[in-house]
């Protein structure tokens, strides 16, 4: 299924063939790099020269770029989906991210990705942010499948002080250190956080015993906003560059992105020095879109997508992502993929098999062989909070959004941030001179400028549907919005009235999914968590004595049904409009044929 044809292939052809027939093949290492709140338009392989990410781009151009990749709109749900392979709404982990002082975590009945890989023989390490439970030891990474964890257990932190400052809805304030090396708080850490995390990753790689495969999960806190006292925190040891960028906040943001790109360069270099790069699967992905505006904004940009982090629009959930391995044929893959797919996909890449009901599907063969996606739908969002109930769902090329999105960021944001007051640095020289390019040169992987141009063009989002509504569609209590997001990735041409049958199909499926959710309690914020009780270190404050105590997560409280009284009866005045049929290539079909055509085009 997955051939090791690089370097080993050339020098060791004979012995590989013999050993493959006699023993199971060696397992590929996996390095999964997740960045926090980075938007679609914040990497240069998506077409913009404003913020150059040459190390990231080199990997992307030599790997498989995931062009239709959906994450979750918020941090905790995204990480839950990645680690469990399930839609977070099944586990009560959807919606608002965890407070550090909240008694919630991924239910302990769930088995997580590192645990599966560990069973397959992997040495498993998490470096960076966790954010899926920290109230008790049982929730921590080292209790859930990671051999080691260096990093943060909760949400965003300060890049310089490693403190998390938390303000409750009632105004109560708590603050303390959240940086650990396994159990030991790192009170004396004084490196810039991107460097501290990268140093640790490099160290793990250098000390790795290659008799076992490596699963190294790196989860940056960058480029998320820092604490409210300093939202954007580039390194203090260098001056701010990116002078071509007109907006000064965007300049600071660019500086942080550059640090992430350098970190990627250092990690690839370390893998090469260890002689394991050729057989390492590298995944790079953001956890959600950028909060261009609103609380915890970071001046990232999701354009041409609509919306921001914390919204069901494409800008919240379509994020930069790719996967690299030296054996891949580089390409842009247009298959539909969801963050839940990584668990079965990476397990399959490691030769394992899951016999378990999850939402994620194994995309490994499809990615490796440029096949069709194994998925034809994505549950984009379920928000059952009474103050803002909404849901979004994609099937085939169509995406439906229903409910109440009042108060969310429903527009297109950040065009002014993309303005350059001077010429940005030249792209190709930077691409050729970065660390990853140098390593690739040594490995005999050459970057062909024509290939780069073609790939970059294919990875740049194009708006194909030229019709633009005068007012962007916002769902109302009786009417949702429907978009063909392949034709209309900016979600600016609503088809709700034109494609009635698709609306009926999608909303009925969405209704069924909505019913599968586990309701959440209101956040259970606890005084005992106050780091002031623990020398100003965020520390697990619940001591579990018996098994029951740790396996039962109290749910309930919110109890809202899927109760969008949508009016999806046929709009008679539209009946003769053929736009609907043309859009979905069902023009000319009638009756049952038309219905089957619609079904086929949607599912
Ligand atoms: C690596 O692990 C193998 C198997 O456990 C062991 O025999 C070997 O000594 C280890 N190598 C190092 C350098 O620790
Ligand atoms: C929609 O949500 C907003 C914000 O939470 C709220 O003020 C408004 O009452 C809601 N509208 C309806 C119709 O539920
Ligand atoms: C619902 O939203 C309100 C207002 O944002 C918030 O106070 C509450 O905690 C939320 N409930 C849940 C279960 O997340
Ligand atoms: C939590 O602490 C606040 C302020 O210190 C206090 O007013 C409140 O009563 C405490 N709540 C509980 C449940 O102990
Ligand atoms: C559904 O919503 C309607 C009005 O929007 C309300 O009258 C009805 O009670 C709701 N039903 C449930 C089960 O919540
Ligand atoms: C039905 O379609 C017509 C023509 O596009 C439009 O003006 C009207 O608002 C639609 N009716 C409803 C209820 O959406
Ligand atoms: C539903 O929409 C149709 C046209 O699309 C309209 O004729 C009808 O009055 C609407 N019904 C309600 C309850 O709004
Ligand atoms: Ca995030």
TrEMBL record:
<dbReference type="Pfam" id="PF00884">
    <property type="entry name" value="Sulfatase"/>
</dbReference>
<keyword id="KW-0479">Metal-binding</keyword>
<feature type="domain" description="Sulfatase N-terminal">
    <location>
        <begin position="28"/>
        <end position="351"/>
    </location>
</feature>
<keyword id="KW-0732">Signal</keyword>
<keyword id="KW-0106">Calcium</keyword>
<comment type="similarity">
    <text>Belongs to the sulfatase family.</text>
</comment>
<keyword id="KW-0325">Glycoprotein</keyword>
<dbReference type="InterPro" id="IPR047115">
    <property type="entry name" value="ARSB"/>
</dbReference>
<protein>
    <recommendedName>
        <fullName>Sulfatase N-terminal domain-containing protein</fullName>
    </recommendedName>
</protein>
<dbReference type="GO" id="GO:0046872">
    <property type="term" value="F:metal ion binding"/>
</dbReference>
<dbReference type="InterPro" id="IPR000917">
    <property type="entry name" value="Sulfatase_N"/>
</dbReference>
<dbReference type="InterPro" id="IPR017850">
    <property type="entry name" value="Alkaline_phosphatase_core_sf"/>
</dbReference>
<dbReference type="GO" id="GO:0008484">
    <property type="term" value="F:sulfuric ester hydrolase activity"/>
</dbReference>
<keyword id="KW-0378">Hydrolase</keyword>
<feature type="signal peptide">
    <location>
        <begin position="1"/>
        <end position="22"/>
    </location>
</feature>
<dbReference type="InterPro" id="IPR024607">
    <property type="entry name" value="Sulfatase_CS"/>
</dbReference>
